[in-house]
Fold each of these.
Amino acid sequence: MADKLTRADIVHGLRKLGLQLGDRMLVHSSLAALGDVDGGADTVIDALIEAVGPDGLVVVPTFACQLPFDRKTSTTPLGSIADQFWHRPNAFRSLHPTHSVAAIGRGAEELLRGHEKAPTAYGEGTPYHTLAVNSGRILLLGVDQDRNTTLHTAEALSGAVYLSDITGAYVDDSGSEVTIPIAAMAGPHRDFIGLDRLFRERGIMRIGRIGSAVCRLMDAGGILDVAMEALKRDPAAVLCDNPNCADCVMQRGKINAARLARESFTLAAVFGDISNDVDEVLRALQGEGIRSVEVTASEYLAHAQILTEKKIRIAAVRAALDEDGAADLANRLGVPLVVQAKTLEDVEAATQLAQCGARVLIANMGAPSSFYEEVYANRPDAPRFAFDPGEFAAAGDKPFLGVFYRGKLRKQMEHFHISDQTFSGQWTLPGQGNGEVKEIISMLRCRSYSGMMTLRSPLGGIDNFRAAAKAFWNLLDNM
């Protein structure tokens, strides 16, 4: 049987990690990870305090199991070390209702004072941020980066758009309950583990073993800087890319929605391109930050209630020229009716619909650009145009230089479909065919185009839609 881990063993292990007398450190811990500790949590706490000495400071997150939080009585969900730490008579505990910390050592009371008055739980004015910008250190004692609350500080300081504003309640020292706003509150799942490699590469973290626990000692300011750099490069840097993680899909969607809010155009998708299952469609739209969708009449009638409840805007009704009821639905919703036209007979039928009061858009399909240019030259009453570059490529045109740039059809355009094909008619992801999609989108953005751009994924299925969306975001990233 292995010997029990003693206080001296733990102090020795901390010294090997690089902890020094006088250090100020924030500790996230797991007693179970250490193995069999003689004296349990109290021994670990004694070792931590001894390792930093009388001029040092030990800070431990204590959080709250439920609200209102009472720093005198509320237990912590963070394990026995944290729970016994705040119970010590020489420990100070902050009043923050969701992310309280306890501290023992020089400057403990000063560090924690006013935590509940900070706008966020872990941003500026909180113990987490104050330690990081004043040469503090972070010790992960048998836990990984997902327990590292200071990484939430990086999110808050970076203005991560997926953070939420909430309220929290605590009991003050007079016994009164106080409710406060808490801005930029972290949501559910994170992938902070993915930052571990960056910390190692920058040389701001040392890894060692104490008992059976793998431990990490880090420069708090350094890891905060590296995390903020990562978030600046990629706002989703601390979110996982698992398409089945609903939490991160939702949060990535908020990032995309914030990007779209800065654009003059509105991005839509086609319901039927994604799935016949409305729940799958809604998840896919949420993940891309898209709030508008083109539907058929049957799709709308089947799912109108949930689309309305989820505040999904109907961008257009898609229909065949001879489809009964579609024009009436489009009129009732106040949206365009998008029909495909490739012959003069199709154009005539679309024009008749428009003359009956429908707001019709002709989408090109199969015919070359010269056909549509002739239509608009000879039929001033013809409906306006929904421009599909993929269809033009399949018809042998160069959609940007040969069609859009010439301007004849651009002047008639009301919708733009982000659709791509090769000259041979094979569907591709946006920007990977001959549709010159990137060039057209770039020029539309230069003109502050305020109409609809509809992301197409004609191959169907949620995976193909996500791939098309990823290609679209990549195009924007490279403009």
Note: The two ends are 63 Å apart (CA to CA).
Amino acid sequence: MRGTLKSRLAAVGAMILAATVARAQQQGTDQSAQPTQATQPNQPAQPSQPIPAYHSPFASAANNGDEAYDPQRLNPDTTALTGIQDLSLGVPATTHSYWLPHLDFTSTVDSNPLAGQGQSGLTSFTSLFGGIDLHRNSGNSQLTLDYVGGASFSNDGSVSNGIVQGLNFSDRLAYRRYVISFFEQFMYAPQTTLGAGGIPGGPTLPGVGTGGIGNGYLPGQSILTARGQRLTNFSGGELDYLLNSRSSLTFVGGYNLLDSLDDNQLNYGNVIFSAGYNFQLSRANTIGLSYQFSSFNYSNVDQSIKNNVIAVSYGRRITGKLAFQAAGGPDITFIKMPITTTPGSTGTTGGTPGSSTQVYGYFNTSLQYSLQRTSMTATYNHGVSGGSGVLAGSVADSVTGGVNRQVSRTFSVGWSVGYSRNRGLAINGTTTSNQTYDYWFTGVNVSHPMGRTLNIFLNYQLQYQNTNLALCTGTVACGTGTSVTRNQVTFGLGWHKLPIPF
């Protein structure tokens, strides 16, 4: 629980610090000055735009509507290529401050909520969530806060109820030659597995995912595990310093953790530091060079992993149409042995205590592409990860993709698909089993707004996982099989008030 306490203290501290600095800065600094482009003092101000409409965090990405991809309503994205956030299609062209409340009701039928450990047959969940979205622009500060909280209730006594508390916070303080940014992403939920967004236990907060915090900074959850309360958190800060009109330096510090409160899994915390150089080749193209250090430390096993990644990056942005980035390079990993691959175990596995140095490859890429009524996303990541609470470190591959189509003004359809592979770190001189998990998911979402404040949606998702050993991913006894299949059908109704300016 020490990791949990640190996370909560870090979350509170980051928000208090960001809010204090934002209120203190009331100077008339040019808000358009960004670390990746020169200030244009004679450039006319952007015209005031209407407040963007709210979209339910449970609805398909297709429910964003045309306005989210209309270049006339977006300003160019000036995110640093080597920074915390992924590149995006642009930022809303509005200077308004506003907030809005929302409520979401969902009902889900789940064929296998325990993921193969004690099959209970069909189980239904009823969930109720409420939240608030807040956007505040003041002087040189751009603050965003999205919160959702609620609970899901099971009709099966062998499957526990769940609580959800989620927070996504960011504050960007822009000055003439530098930008300081603070980030906080917190999620306490029954399930946070890859692809779980849009179902009870895995709500997707606005701003999380594509165009949000990059994969290298979030705690990994790419192995399907049994339902149980989990805490994931990232707290970090970024400094971008403009060297000239084309180049900038980026410095990042942060901490993330994965804590399985109900399961005897491999909880860990990860300290991250990175430094990068960005160079703008042209209006649309940017290259970068970065170094990132991360240190995984597990709270219930004698194991630590230190990664040193040197990466070359390339990014291309066309406002409202395209956001693409790719980074790759060597990952020099220092591992403290013994390796432990049994969740919750302590001590050695028969190997001699010591250390090992391994060299792996690192690759990370993401793509967003938008047409008039269709949007597409794709990501691929390869590198050393924390093991998703199941393995004491793994070499992980994950690929996700999605297509969203606005069929009509009030009807949209989305399709998502993903695959991940986690292979336990194999170190010479130990008895590591080199266990491997292969996980697939795919889903379809249909969304239909009713008026300006209501939205209904229907979601189906299929999840499948197999492994080369018996499934051991929770507090119950290990299963006898090596694969698990899960089907989920969710119906949802969302209400939101129209944005309230302040």
Note: The chain has one domain: 2-37+52-501.
Amino acid sequence: MKIAYLDCTHGVAGDMFLGALIDAGLPLEKLKAALATLPLAGYTLRTERARRGGIAGTHVIVDVEAAQPARHLSDLLEIVDRSTLPPVVRAKASAAFRRLAEAEGAVHGESPESVHFHEVGAVDSLVDIIGAFAGVHLLGIEKFFASPLHLGRGTVSTAHGVLPVPAPATAVLAKGLAVVVSASEGEFTTPTGALLVATLAGSDETPPPFRLEATGTGLGTRETPGRPNIFRVLLGEAMPAEARGAARRPVVVLETTVDDMTPEWLAPLPERLLAIGALDCTLEPVLLKKGRPGHRIVVIARPEKSGDLAEALFRETSTLGVRIRTEERLELPRGLVAVSTRFGAIRVKVARLPDGSTRAHPEFEDCRRAAEAAGATAAEVADEARARWVEAGRPLGSDT
């Protein structure tokens, strides 16, 4: 799966977002061809290589050659609908404009349909927003993650007059996202930038490990003293689970059914098979031929244990045949740790998850025995064992 990490450390605007995509490999001519399907005229799209704060990147410039009409939500939706952009691009762009209209309406106390778009309704903003969704589609990006939004502070001049930073619409659009407000003066994240991040990423969720393939840097218009006016995007392929710590290993699955054994004779079977070397064993009630109720026995084991386990199934059950198949399973690294509690030593099974964190589960039989001896509950013993494991630094323990 191709993913993108949006680095909003220094803010984001629509032109910066589009510039980062182009800088990361989005072909400009393909982008222009996609935008040419829109019923928009009187503009020219171009790019230039430049530097902001000593960092090189791509600056997107939309030269407006003719006066633009006033636009409302219906006008923006019609522009999108009349294009021949892919359906997914049209759907995302339309959803973004509706979201923007709701934000602006909430700010000005109007219905979304009656909002008059000024800056965002201008052709350069339309190119930035629709171009960003078209660019995402052309690059094949499937999922987005984002850093906290850097909002800035102070005031900004708009068509509505001087507004506080973050601009009211930006604040509404950023609701639910992690944000940073610094001591630096200026508008670092614009409504258009917040709209794109909120629509595509939706949260500041940490991305999974991924193989970095490309980076892109989009430049803002201003050169800001003491801060690079840039926005970055990092593109890559999410690493498969086994490359993130889970091992792919072969196992055999032994399976059989019986319909002439009572539950009391079957009950000890899983424990006996586990003692021989089974990794897991389950008994499932099933309805067999001639309407007879019975049980399916499923055993998972390492390949070298298949013979011993098949022999045990013939010996311990009434079955006349055992099906065996080879499969693969992904296994997390795991270990056993013995922790000291007021109930005595308790073993804790620990697994390391793909993101590097660990998960612990106290061994139930240890908890049960300790609870019976102390007159406590197994849950109390397990809670203390888990707490002692955390205090010990969450060790993984020895392999199991």
Note: DSSP finds twelve helices and 19 strands in the chain.
